[in-house]
Please model this.
Amino acid sequence: MSIPTLAGITAKTITSQRLTTRVLLSGPENGAPVLFVHGNISAATWWEETMLALPAGYRAIAPDQRGYGESDPAKKIDATRGLGDLADDLAALLDTLNIQKVHLVGHSMGGSVVWRFMMDYTDRLLSVTQVAPGSPYGFGCTKDVAGTPCNGEFAGSGAGLINPEFARLLTAGERGTGSMFAPRNALRNLVFKPPFVPAREEEILSATLSTHMGQQDYPGDSVPASAWPHLAPGVLGANNALSPKYNQNILPNLLEMSYKPKVLWIRGAQDLTVSDTAAADVGRLGSLGLIPGWPGKNVFPPQPMLAQTRDVLQKYAAAGGAYQEVVIDDCGHAPYLEKPAEFNAAFHAHITT
Model:
């Protein structure tokens, strides 16, 4: 059953050359298009309030990405292409809608898709808004601002880092709070900054539970590794696609773009999901003694995700681009839901100027 939408949001099933999926739409059909890209374990539902808050004259478009929500479950993510499948899906959707250029907005993993879209479809961008994006180098197994891998197997990134109890409860559709690993608790304690609870928590949770589950989807497949923590990325699913193993040459490609759209980087000050001490980063968990055998900070430190993003954007600006970093206080990983007034003030100014 489809997740109910807010008044003013239209849900359509759209088939492009690559994917059939649910797409949420709002605003005038001839308005300036804004394409919203959701993050991991979520779906287009997360964007509805932000879509409705757009200034007059803007058209909001938010698809369920491959592997999530009501996208075709037969379509899998080839992780060996990095986020290429998801970026190509967005371009194919725009082709189907006869849209050439968009304001592009990505959250978390959706931000990682945006890094790839920027490289592959530069000429289709009016502006870029990165909301708590994943590091341009991927998630896990990098030790410094330059994205240097912690080991040659990229162990400590990919599907193997997903907590198996969380994955089990997600598969079971658990809606309660009895386990610390329950999806609702993960949202309340790790995604949002307590005590924030979204007004549409049930719909947000339903979107999370609509994640496609299994070794071909979420969490994905993994392979043994000799390097700590002895699991390396497989070849299917978004978690593996986020591995630095499959996200090489990001920085030079961004710097070589002939056209560099302006970038707004906006995040919460208390983000536990994407930070220099991220709660799910195995380097951080190892340093806390939660994963045995940690080889130490010289071998596998917590990934400096924010420092990596800032360094890339500074180099992007030095190469002719422009960016602005906005940090919202008292806010976690989803500022557009937690602090909509502050978020929209910065976001609307970015896309209208």
Q: What stands out?
A: Residues 10-150+248-352 form a domain with the Rossmann fold fold (CATH 3.40.50.1820). The mean pLDDT is 97. The first strand starts at residue 10 and ends at 15. DSSP finds twelve helices and twelve strands in the chain.
